[in-house]
Amino acid sequence: MSEYDYEALGLVAGLEIHQQLDTATKLFCNCPTALREPDDAERTFTRYLHPTKSELGEIDEAALEESRVDREFEYLAYDTTCLVEEDDEPPHRIDEEALDVTLEIAQLLDMDVVDQGHVMRKIVVDGSNTSGFQRSMLIAGDGVIETSDGPVGVEDLLLEEESAQRVAETEDGVRYSLDRLGIPLVEIGTKPDISSPEQAREAAERIGMLLRSTGHVKRGLGTIRQDLNVSIEDGARVEMKGVQSLDDIDDLVRNEVRRQVELLDIRDELEARNASVGESQDVSDVFEDTDSGVIAGALNGGGSVQAVPLYGFDGLVGREIQPDRRLGTELSDHAKRHGAGGIFHTDELPAYGVTEVEVEALRDAVGAGEDDAVALVADDSETAAMAIEAVVERAKTAMDGVPEETRGANDDGTTRYLRPLPGAARMYPETDVPPVEPDVTEVEQPELLTEKVERYQADFGLDEGLANQVAYGQRWGLFEEAVDTGVDASLAAGTLESTVTELRRDEVPVENLTDDHFRGLFALLADGDLAKEGVPDLLAALAENPSLTPEEAAEQEDLGSAGEDEVREAIAEVVDRNAEQVETEGMGAFSALMGECMGALRGKADGDVVSDVLREEIQKRAN
Amino acid sequence: MNAGDRVRVERASETYEGVLLPSSTPESLVVKLDGGYNVGIDREAADVEVLENDVYDVESAQADQQSSAIEFDEDLPTISLISTGGTIASTVDYRTGAVTAQFDAEDVLRAVPDLAGMANYRGRVVANILSENMNPAIWQDLAAAIEEEIEAGADGIVVMHGTDTMQFSASAMAFMLDTPVPIVFTGSQRSADRPSSDNVMNAVCSVEAAKSDAAEVMVCMHATESDDVCALHRGTRVRKNHTSRRDAFETVGAEPLGEVDYESGEVTFRRDYQERGAVELDADTDLETDVELLKFTPGTDIALLETVADKEGIVIEGTGLGHVNTDWIDRLDEVVDSGTTVVMTSQCLEGRVCDRVYDTGRDLIDAGVVEGEDMLPGTAKVKLMWALANAESVTETMQTSLAGEIQDRSVPWT
C-alpha cells in the first residue's frame, strides 16, 4: 500500500479507550468482578425496554428507533450476581476502589479532576444494560500524553459500568449474561490531535502502558477495547468500533484514509459523469430461468429480485476502496443491515451463475446503458424491497462523498458499516447515586511500566528483554514480592516468564497457576527448601493439581532441596557406576556424568553444588 | 445567572461550558456539558460568565404539555384511570434529584402509549402524593371518586398508586365499596423515568384486569422478575414483601387470585371471584380513624400501650399464635372494659391466630381481646376503622369475612 501524505490530506484522528478495572467488587454493588460461563447460570429472566425523556424534555431518536423493534431480552444470572445487576435493587454507593484507581489514571494522564462527579444515565436500549441505561461519570478532563510525534490531548476520563455480555440471538430478541454487567470500566477519549497512523498506534500503546502501570486493570481478551475516530479534509468523521488489537490500529487508520480518499475520488468522478440514482424496481422476470443459486433460491421461496439503475456508475461500483472492499461492498453492507444476504452489481457480473444474457436483459429492464451500473438484491419480497432502498440511499450518498457513520473493525484491518453515528443528548442524571467529591490528595502516583523496566535492569541486573517481559506481564507484583523476600531476581523473573512460557508450550495447563502458588514457590526458594532446578517440575505439578499447596506438591514430586550428604551420596553412586569411564577419562568424564547426577537428584539440588561435588568425587577416583 | 442559562465556568486551569442546571446548590454549580455529562463545580472557586440566557426553559421542558389526541371507540369498554401519585406516574424532580409524582392520568396515557387502543379512558386525579403520605381522608376521596366514575359509566377502574401503602388503600376500597366492576390497583417498583420501568407492563395488565369479569378490588403487579405475567392479588390479602423487586407484592396465605399474561392480554383466575354486575354499586365510606396498630416485640415498653389506651380501636401485631407479654394482660383487660376494641393479629403474617392453645392466649380472650383470624395486621387495622364506623357488632364483623380478608380454610397452596 502506498503511503499518503497524511498532513496534506488533513488527517485528524482520535482514540477512545475502554478498560475494565480489576477491583474486588463491582461499581455499584458488592458482587465480585468475575466472569462466568453461560452454562453456570442459575436463573434467567426476561425484560422489555421503553424509551424515556431526558430532564431537558428531549427523547433520543436513536433510542426511540431502536425501541420500535419490540425485542425481548433474556438475562442469565449467577451466584456471583445480585438484584442490582437485575435492576431490581437501587445501586449502592460508588465503589471506592474503582474511584481510587480512576483518580490514579487521571494523574497519570495529567488531567484536571472535577470538584464533584455526577453519575449520569447514558440511555442504551439494546438490552445490554438491564436498566436501559449505562451509569457513567465524568471524573477528569484536559490531560495530555506524549508521543514521538508530539503531545496528544486527553479530552475526558469517565468511570462507568461495563455492560452485560451478549451471549446469543434468541427467537424474540437477545440473550445477555449478567456477570460482566457492573464491572468498573474507564473510558479515555483523546482530543483529535492525532495526525498519522503511527501516532494513533503509539498513543494507544502509551495509554495502555499507563493503564497497566496502576496494577489494577483487567487483562486478557475483551478487557480493553479501542475505538478510533478518523477523518480527512472534505471527508467525514467515521467511528471505528471493536478494534481487537493495538497492532491493527495503524492499519485501520491507513485503510480508513484510503477509503475516504477513494470515496472522494469516486464522488468527483460521479460529478464529472453527471451521475444519478434511478428508481428501484422488481426485475424477478429477468431471472425466471436463472442458474444463479442465490437468485433461484429467493425466487423459488416466493421472494423477488429488486434492482436499481445507477446512472453513470459503471466501473465505480467495483472500484476497490480498501483491500478487497469496493463501493459495492458498502452498498452490500447497507443491504445486509436490513436483513438481506448481500447484493450483486453489474461491475462484477456475469458471475455467480448470472449469465451475460441475463445481465443484458437486466440492463434493458431498468433502462441502464453501458455507462451505467445496476445493483440487485434477491430475497423474500419484504427484505428485498427494504434492502434495495438502503442500497439506493447509500448510492446517493456516494455522490456527496464520505458519510459520517459508525463502522466495525474487521480482522484484516478493514472496516464494515454498522450504523449511523449516535446522537448526543441521551444523558439523564442518576438520581439513585449521590454526587461524589473526589479527593486527589490521597492518590499516589504509581511507578510507570517504562520506569519499572529501567529499574529492573539497573537494580536487579535483568536484561532488557526479561525486564520488559516482567514489567509488561501480569505478574510484576509477584516478582517484586519475591525479590523482597530474597529470591534471586533473575530466577524470579525467569520463573514467572520464561519457565511459564516453556511449560505452556509443553501443554502444561499453566492457566491453573495462581498468585498463591507462585508465592509459596518463592517462599520455598527463599528458605532453601527448593533448588532452582526443581522449579519447572513444581510448577507443572501445581498446574496439574491446582488444589495442592506448593509444599505438598514439592513433597509429592520429591523436590525438597537435598542436603549436602544426600547430594554427595547420590553423586558417589553415579561415579561408582561409571568407575571405568572415570578411570580412563579422568576429568574428561565430567560433562557426561554431570547430566546423570542431575537426573539422579531430580531437581533437588543446585547445579553449582552438584558440579563442585562431582569434581571432588572424580578427583578422588582419578588419584 | 439562572438555571437554563448557557455558562462558561473557569475553575483553576479548567474551563467548563454548558447549561446551568436547577440542581445547583449553594456550594456547587451543576453544569450540563455539551457531551451530556453533569459536573459539580465549587461555587467559591469558580468564575462564571453567562454566555446566553435561557437556552433551555427547564420548567416547561419537563412539563411538556402537548395534548394527546384520544379518540372514543364505541366498541371498546371505558376504563377510568385514577391517579393518586407514586412511581408509576412519576418523573424525576431535577431540583432535588428525587423521584416525585407530578403526572396526571392524561400524562400516564402519554407516558404509556401501549395503553392506546385497549379501551376508552377517563382520567382523574384524586391526589398527587407519595404513598407514604396516604391517609384515611384520601381513601374517602378515592372511594367517592370511584363511585362517581362507575356511575358515569366506567366499565372498570385502574387506580395508580405508590407501592408503599397500596395494600392499605386497596383494603379500604374493598371494605367501603360494593362494586359491580373491577377495581384494580397498580404501581411501579422501578421509577417510570428508566427504560426498564415496570410501569408499562403493570399498566397494560391492569387495564386488561379492569376489563375482566372479576368485580373485585385487586392489586395487579409483576408476578416474577420477568416482564411476562402480572399477578392479580385480592386487595385484602396482599402485602408488599420486598423493598425494591418488581415482584414485591405477594398474596399471603394463598396463591394469587389470578394472573394476566402480558403478551396475550389473557386474564385467568385460580379461584372463585365476584362476577361483574353481581352486586349493586354502594359506598359506605365512613371511617373511625381513631385506631392504632401496635407491634409487640420482646422488651416493648407497656407505656406504648398507654399511649393508645384511649383509642376506639387497637390492632395488636402479637407474637406467634397471637400473644403479648403476660404482664400486659391485666392492662388490656382494663382497656377493653373502658370500651376500646382490641383485635389480635400475628406478626407471623402466615397462619391463623389461635388464643386457645396456651394460657397467655386464653387469658387474652378472657380479657376480651378479639381474635383476628388469619387477617393481615394492616388489613385488620383498616377493617377496624371501617367496622367501628359502620358495623352493628364490631366483634362479630371483625371475625366475619367481608371482602376475602379472612379465609375459612387454611389452604395456602391454593
Largest interface: which pair?
Answer: A-B, 53 and 52 residues
* CATH fold-level assignment of the largest domain in chain B: Rossmann fold
The beta-strand count of chain A equals 23
Indicate the proportion of strand residues of chain B: 25-35%
Helix content of chain B: 10-25%
Number of helices of chain A: 20
Largest sheet of chain B: 8 strands, mixed
- Largest sheet strand order of chain B: 9-6-10-12-13-14-17-18
Helix content of chain A: 25-40%
Overall pLDDT confidence of chain B: 90
Which spans of chain A have pLDDT < 50 for at least 5 consecutive residues?
none
Query: What summary fits the major beta sheet of chain A?
Result: 11 strands, mixed
Please compute the radius of gyration of chain B using only Cα atoms: 25 Å
According to DSSP, the number of beta strands of chain B is 23
- The low-confidence runs of chain B, each spanning 5 or more residues with pLDDT under 50, are 60-69, 92-102
Domain module count of chain B: 3
Q: Give the N-terminus to C-terminus distance of chain A in angstroms.
A: 73 Å
- First-to-last CA distance of chain B: 64 Å
Shape of chain A: elongated
Class of the largest domain in chain B, according to the CATH hierarchy? Alpha Beta
List the helices and strands and how they pair.
The complex is a heterodimer of chains A (623) and B (414).
Chain A: H1 6-9, E1 12-20, E2 43-47, H2 61-68, E3 72-77, H3 96-108, E4 112-113, E5 116-117, E6 119-123, E7 133-145, E8 152-161, E9 165-169, E10 173-177, E11 184-190, H4 197-213, E12 224-231, E13 238-243, H5 249-272, E14 276-277, E15 281-282, H6 293-300, E16 304-311, E17 320-322, E18 325-326, H7 327-337, E19 344-345, H8 356-366, E20 373-379, H9 381-398, E21 405-409, E22 415-419, E23 427-429, H10 449-460, H11 464-472, H12 476-484, H13 489-505, H14 515-526, H15 535-544, H16 550-556, H17 564-577, H18 579-585, H19 590-601, H20 607-622
Chain B: E1 6-11, E2 14-20, E3 28-33, E4 38-42, E5 47-52, H1 58-63, E6 78-83, E7 90-92, E8 99-101, H2 105-111, E9 120-125, H3 136-151, E10 156-160, H4 166-176, E11 177-178, E12 183-186, H5 199-210, E13 217-222, E14 229-234, E15 238-240, E16 249-251, E17 258-261, E18 267-269, E19 282-283, E20 291-295, H6 302-308, E21 313-318, H7 329-337, E22 341-346, H8 359-366, E23 370-371, H9 377-390, H10 394-398
Parallel strand pairs in B: 6-9, 6-10, 10-12, 12-13, 20-21, 21-22, 22-23
Antiparallel strand pairs in B: 1-2, 1-5, 2-3, 3-4, 7-8, 11-19, 13-14, 14-17, 15-16, 17-18
Helix pairs in contact in B: 3-4, 4-9
